[in-house]
Amino acid sequence: MRAKTGNAAIGLLFGLLFGLLATSPARAAQSAPEPGPEAAPAPEAAASEPAPPAFDLRGYRGARGLAPENTLAGIDQALAVGVTTLALDIVATADDVLVAYAEPLLVPEITRDPSGAYIEERLPVRGLTLEELQRFDVGRIRPGTEYARAYAEQITRDRARIPTLQAAFDRVAELEAHHVRFALDMRIRPDRPDLAPEPKDLAALVAALVRENGLEQRVVVESYDWRLLDALAEIAPEIARGCRTAEIAFDTLRAGEPGPSAWLNGRDIDDFGGSAARAAADAGCVVWAPDHRDLDLEALEEARAHGLKVVPGLVNETAEMRRMLALGVDGLTTDFPNRLRALLVERGLPAPPQVRIPTR
User: Fold this and answer.
1) Measured between alpha carbons, how far is 325 from 273 in angstroms, rounded to an integer?
2) Residue 114's Cα: distance from chain center in Å?
3) Are 261 and 227 within one domain?
4) Are residue 183 and residue 107 in the same domain, yes or no?
């Protein structure tokens, strides 16, 4: 009788223990349904910064292939598709406001004046105040141009204005896209000092805005002009830097030429054996962003040996995306994030969350 009573007590004890385990928070979390692929991250995710992405899917100028470039509409489109990073071009106005725009000079193919006519004169952004700049419409590509043929899929957004960088930050925050990062390509040239503030002044402007928004862990500041990057390293070493280079589209390295390249802020690429990756590591960059046509396996492996993430651009054709993925790059910059995202899904690789955009 005592044995039976003891067995019953043991059974009751195990039953209670099993019940507690079944309803424990850890077990409940494991059994809870996960959000669908279309769901944006919960607002509380903003409390802790996101971990660096496994693959950096960058939407160039938002999603230039699908929506007007460097606009809030383009940002919305990129977030709806699902990107890791918004890659935006940044220039400064006459009143030192940072704005998202393609070039230091207004581009006739995408810019209309207040009358609705496409501009003919390439006015410098640096010569215009923010108020003057926002009179222009950048929501439609000029019909019949090579530009229009290259981006025939782009939707139009008439009356789209050139946004400030602050407006871009605000839009992402408004949509609670706390997982999204920013790659800010500072448009400054050593051969045109009239088109931008001094490198240290431009670095100070972007550092202040990033800090004000608490985005130090979600921003990488990039440039072909390494004067800007060296200045930022002194002003805000906590903000990541990305060294951009080009050899085919235009040459920032000047390999084999006597003396240093002005683009590399006094560095002579020949002192690094002609290696852009070695030079980028010397500059303290965490990302090397070469033209994809300049990248091969040897250069990729050298970059990795120096601790660099490699994120080439600009890759728009699916075949070249496949080649880059096979090479093993850490990310890609593209006008067509939808194409790249589809390839990631096809290969069973993690894809960034898609953000629901409210109907306006």
Assistant:
1) 27
2) 30
3) yes
4) yes
| Structure token digits, residue 324 | 């880059």
Same-domain pairing of 114 and 192: yes
- Residue type at position 337: P
User: Residue 50 class from Cβ within 10 Å (0-12 exposed, 13-18 middle, 19+ buried)?
Assistant: middle
| Residue type, position 223, single letter | S
What CA–CA distances, in Å, run from 294 to 195, 207, 319? 28, 30, 16
Q: CATH no. for residue 178?
A: 3.20.20.190
Phi first, then psi: give them for residue 244, nearest 5 degrees: -95, 140
Same domain, 85 and 26: no
What does the pLDDT average to over 15-37? Answer: 33
Measured over the CA atoms of residue 225, residue 228, residue 229 and residue 231, the dihedral's sign is positive
Overall average pLDDT of the 129-140 stretch: 98
Distance CA 298, CA 232 (A): 29
Strand pairing partners for 291? 313
Model confidence over 208-255: pLDDT tens digits?
999 999 999 999 999 999 999 999 999 999 999 999 999 998 999 999
CA angle 197, 260, 300 (to 5 degrees): 95
Number of domains in the chain: 2
* 162 and 26 belong to one structural domain: no
pTM: 0.86
**Are 25 and 62 found together in one domain?**
no
> If you compute the radius of gyration of the chain from its CA atoms, what whole number of angstroms results?
24
d(CA 199, CA 202) in angstroms, rounded, equals: 5
The residue among 41 and 303 whose pLDDT is bigger is 303
Question: What is the domain extent for residue 278?
Answer: 53-346
> Within this chain, do residues 212 and 261 fall inside the same structural domain, yes or no?
yes
Q: Could you give the C-alpha distances from 206 to 184, 228, 338, 344, in angstroms and in order?
A: 9, 10, 29, 32
